[in-house]
Amino acid sequence: MNGSDTINERNHIMKSRTLLLSMLTAASLAAAENPIVSGDLKQWHKVTLTFEGPAAQETNNDPNPFTDYRLTVTFRHASGSPQYKVPGYFAADGNAASTSAKSGTKWRAHLSPDQPGKWAWTASFVRGQQAALNPETVSTAISPIDGRTGSFEIAATDKTGRDLRANGRLQYVGQRYLRFAGSGEYFLKAGADSPENLLGYADFDDTWSRKKAGAAGRQGEATPAGLHRYEPHVKDWRPGNPTWKEGKGKGLIGGLNYLAGKGCNVFSFLTYNVGGDGEDVWPFAAPEDKLHYDCSKLDQWQIVFDHAQTLGLYLHFKMQEQEIDDNRRGDQGETFNNPVALDGGDLGPERKLYCRELIARFGYALALNWNLGEENTQSSEQQRAMSQYLRDTDPYDHLIVVHTFPGAQDRVYTPLLGNQSVLTGASLQNAWNATHQRTLKWVAESAKAGKPWVVANDEQGPANLGTPPDPGYQGHSGKAGQGDKAYDLHDIRKTTLWGNLMAGGAGVEYYFGYTLPQNDLACEDWRSRDRTWDYSRIALEFFRINRIPFWEMKNANALVGNESNGNSKYCFAKAGELYLVYLPNGGVSELDLGNRSGAFDVTWFNPRVGGALTQGSTAQVKGPGKTALGHPPAEPNQDWLAVVRRR
């Protein structure tokens, strides 16, 4: 081989290597430009787009990865509808739940697709000062993500039973009850309102209590007990259930398994309580750093919430605690700076970012509500602004409610009724035996204002007691209070659970008070209220198994002589077709059928043990006018529900 041949061969090899390197570089760039699409790619399941983007660290300020970048992904079904404009977020290394990463190059958005078929997506990704909070800010497009498009195919869901992916997204449909978009079924809830600091859990990253265990609590709050561990529920964790970081999370995951196994379908939790009772829950990189978020902690929350959805558990987000929701007014009407309040209660950058991050990370969940805050004291203007921002940012239009003190309901709720706000529900706190009357009031007031609210009872007073534990649990009597004011779990069943349902309410969450065993801050064992969960399951199963069209019914207490809407007896009716008459203390009742003629069958349901409908002393009644329903089948002094149905 001569010299020229050698040179030509070398040149050929060099060109081949250059071409190969160019091809590999192009392929790697294309891979970087195209997001990773992960998830089951099925209807109602979580689909995740993970983009390779600019490197960032949680606590960066210039730029801040949470305020100064705005990732938005628009998803649209091939039919043209629906279309969702989904906010995205900084996801560190994309596996922060396991690695505890604080930095990385991953940016993420989630979708829970309504329909099978082809879905197209378009990404918008810009950088600018507070670009995430102000779409009008001067910003620069981030290449190559901005403007990228793509698509994926979605198959039909394969889930059945309690799994929410079998039923679809729970939606407000302009009625007193939420409805599943997939199955079309209407929803009644029952579950746990305690502990409020459920997310103050030792297995979550960067979570600690700012209060010393056993330190004296403030007046009106439980004694701090340190972080939750939920050790009594580790045995309820099952192989195949999720964990993180080599086995963490079993206590809380097991606890949710237990609640779902008892028939509960909801639980609630604060997502920010620094300055409040627990001082152990915050989504931020540090307790009072409200412009930087903890990626690994929030990924771990997401694991818990995703598991809850597979169990059929609705997520009740309580977004702030009363002590930190605004710059509170003093005794003389003055205001002061509350350093842990989000923008002092206003819709400023801290509050906007907080809402946006929660929506971006968890809004794809199929069943949830945004609660503006527990015992909320923001002004009406602040509440309207916050709820409007939630509505504008949340692509799925989840239920928005607010919770307030029993004596503040008229002042807080009235200015939010109808078209005065985008609020679509009320989270009621009241005395345990005032549930029926309070539910009736806000069901009626919201309907009269032209926008029926979803009205739930989410806290039973008095605040120090709430729902008592089972008799015998840790030696407890099962009673709350003393003397003629004492009550027990049977009273809660009668006037709180059935009181809400028979008023047209959406259901109940049970609050554990701050002085009883397993209280609102220290609850580690939901088995403390085992029988209460049974009574709730029995009630929900009654409506489902007997195909009661509760969404077509309304309270009709006057038909059983309860003109004052007290707790002596309740009636819930679809006039001329179906009447439910609940007798909290047994006995007998008449039912006024008005001008409805014809025969009606009378059967009875036992709300203490459930089971099939049974016959009492009278099998049939006829209209028109008043008619006696006869006696229940047994135990005439216990609570019974008469079911009067047109033949």
List its traits:
647 residues, Immunoglobulin-like, TIM Barrel, alpha/beta, globular, 21% helix
Describe, in short, the structure shown:
With 647 residues, the protein is α/β, with parallel strands linked by helices. It contains ten helices and 29 strands.
Written overview of the protein:
- This protein has helices spanning 3-33, 96-99, 250-261, 295-310, 349-362, 380-393, 409-413, 435-448, 489-501, 530-545; strands at residues 36-39, 47-57, 69-77, 83-87, 89-90, 103-111, 117-127, 140-141, 149-154, 170-172, 178-180, 189-192, 266-270, 314-318, 368-371, 399-403, 425-431, 454-461, 479-480, 487-488, 507-510, 554-555, 570-574, 578-583, 590-592, 598-605, 620-623, 626-628, 640-646.
- The chain is of the alpha/beta class.
- The chain has 4 domains: 1-32; 34-154, Sandwich (Immunoglobulin-like), CATH 2.60.40.10; 164-291 and 302-347 and 366-546, Alpha-Beta Barrel (TIM Barrel); 553-646.
- The protein is globular, with a radius of gyration of 28 Å.
- The termini are far apart.
